[in-house]
């Protein structure tokens, strides 16, 4: 798989290598069988990943407003 990462127009500069870390973590969780039937991490693990890597990756589900409230807790 080949992925090209670039900064969105108007976005702050970021380290593209940082994008690689959550992808590796998600693959690792899948390899360890720590995902649901659809290959998604369980909610608590997904929340930790989403919060830590919010600067480089955005989950589209659940809706962003719900994520902000849930991750704020």
TrEMBL record:
Origin superkingdom:
Bacteria
- Protein's UniProt name: Uncharacterized protein
Q: What is the lineage of its organism?
A: Bacteria, Pseudomonadati, Pseudomonadota, Alphaproteobacteria, Hyphomicrobiales
């Amino acid at each position: 798989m080949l992925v090209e990462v670039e900064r969105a127009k108007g976005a702050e500069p970021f380290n593209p290598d940082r994008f690689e870390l959550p992808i590796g973590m998600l693959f690792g969780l899948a390899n360890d069988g720590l995902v649901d039937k659809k290959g998604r991490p369980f909610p608590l693990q997904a929340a930790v990943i989403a919060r830590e890597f919010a600067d480089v990756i955005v989950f589209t589900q659940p809706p962003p407003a719900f994520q902000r409230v849930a991750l704020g807790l």
